[in-house]
Design brief:
Blueprint lengths: L13 E3 L8 E6 L5 H8 L10 E3 L5 E3 L5 E3 L6 E2 L2 E2 L5 E6 L3 H4 L6 H18 L6 E3 H4 L13 H6 L18 H12 L3 H16 L10 H18 L3
Parallel strand pairs: 2-8, 2-9, 3-8
Antiparallel strand pairs: 1-5, 3-4, 6-7
């Protein structure tokens, strides 16, 4: 695979990974700072105590700040399914974007093209399953918004690099709608036990980016149920 990686910039913020065999998750972030330069400086500053393995600027340049065999500090306090603090088992990828605080905008085609190559490379290298390609807000819904509603998860899914429901299914009538929504999000992996409302918004940013209202409309339940079925299908295959 033709993947050019710049190793000019290195972050001192990492710890030792016990084994490469523990890597089974990819977490996507946006930098959320006013420029690529400030974000890169921050991620490579010992005082920040923050880092990521990979960094993709808006022109599609790919940098590796922390080697895969080290634990980058990108996930923070996090939870997905029954796993907490996902730094130990994940690869973190930062996409340059000012984020919601500094003028959130669309990600560039160049970023998507390099990201897709990188994800394919990591999937093949570490046997990562596509139900483990996650956003920061998926694993930390009460704290994080990234990569946000402008990130095109559907594009990744069309290339088998993420999950998207093939069809929106009718929901079963035997279960109360509120219970079905809660259980669907729980089974997908969201921390609904502690952050139910936040998990709904995180789910919407990823799967219903055109609707970020607090109202629980019928589409939310159908799509959550459909996404859950898609996650179940993928997980049943391994």
């Amino acid at each position: 695979m033709n993947l050019s990686i710049c190793n000019k910039h290195k972050s001192p913020n990492y710890s030792i990974r016990n084994s490469l065999n523990t890597i089974d998750t990819i977490i996507l972030h946006y930098t959320g700072m006013d420029s690529a330069k400030s974000a890169l400086n921050y991620l490579c500053n010992e005082k920040s105590k923050v880092s990521a393995h990979y960094f993709i600027d808006e022109k599609g340049k790919l940098l590796q700040l922390v080697e895969d065999d080290k634990v980058a500090w990108h996930a923070g306090v996090s939870k997905w399914l029954d796993r907490k603090n996902l730094n130990e088992t994940s690869i973190g990828i930062e996409l340059v974007n000012p984020g919601h605080k500094y003028g959130y905008r669309e990600f560039t085609i160049e970023q998507y093209e390099i990201l897709e190559k990188l994800i394919k490379f990591l999937i093949n290298k570490y046997d990562i399953k596509i139900d483990r390609i996650l956003g920061h807000s998926d694993i930390a819904p009460s704290r994080k918004l990234d990569p946000g509603e402008k990130f095109d998860w559907h594009r990744l899914a069309k290339k088998n690099l993420s999950i998207w429901p093939e069809n929106v299914l009718d929901v079963p009538t035997a279960e109360h709608p509120d219970e079905l929504l809660y259980n669907s999000l729980l089974n997908i992996g969201y921390d609904v036990k502690n952050y139910y409302e936040d998990s709904i918004f995180a789910f919407k940013r990823r799967f219903i980016p055109y609707d970020l209202e607090a109202i629980k409309k019928g589409d939310l339940l159908k799509i959550a149920y459909s996404v859950n079925m898609e996650f179940n299908k993928i997980r049943s295959s391994y």
